[in-house]
Write a structure and sequence with these properties.
Helices cover 57% and strands 14% of the residues. It has 6 helices and 5 strands, in the order βααβααβααββ. The chain has a 5-stranded parallel beta sheet with strand order 3-2-1-4-5, sandwiched between helices. The protein is of the alpha/beta class.
Length: 133
């Protein structure tokens, strides 16, 4: 059985902007659709994608990106108290952005692989498996 996959903002933006790593993310999306097992994305990382696109390309493009994400086999996971506690614990122990800690926390709680090219995740490679783009 293949491991469940968690996306972070790096991997989502790579896919949306056809940046390096987009092809690999596209393959994970295809596998998720074929197996009817959606990829996971923390709502905090969803928000990070939205604000980055909004800031760099404007609100209309950010809204279009959000609509595109709705069509993909990606489950946006709300930040409840448990995931927030794990994210805060990771933030206290590692030099990582708080948003990245939510992606790592989701991967840790779901026992899933984290898909990213963000080098900050080297901090938690002993705690979660990172699939590098």
């Amino acid at each position: 059985m293949t491991m469940r996959k968690v996306l972070d903002s790096y991997s989502v933006i790579a896919y949306l902007e056809n940046e390096p790593g987009a092809e690999a993310v596209g393959e994970f999306i295809k596998q998720a659709r074929d197996k009817e097992r959606p990829l996971l994305l923390s709502v905090v990382n969803w928000g990070e994608v939205y604000y980055i696109v909004h800031r760099t390309a404007g609100k209309e493009v950010a809204d279009k990106a959000a609509q595109t994400l709705e069509t993909l086999p990606i489950e946006v996971v709300d930040a409840d108290r448990e995931i927030t506690r794990v994210a805060a614990t990771l933030k206290a122990a590692h030099k990582m952005s708080y948003a990245d800690c939510f992606a790592a926390a989701l991967a840790k709680l779901e026992k899933a692989d984290l898909v990213s090219g963000d080098k900050e995740f080297k901090e938690v490679e002993k705690e979660i498996k990172v699939v590098w783009l």
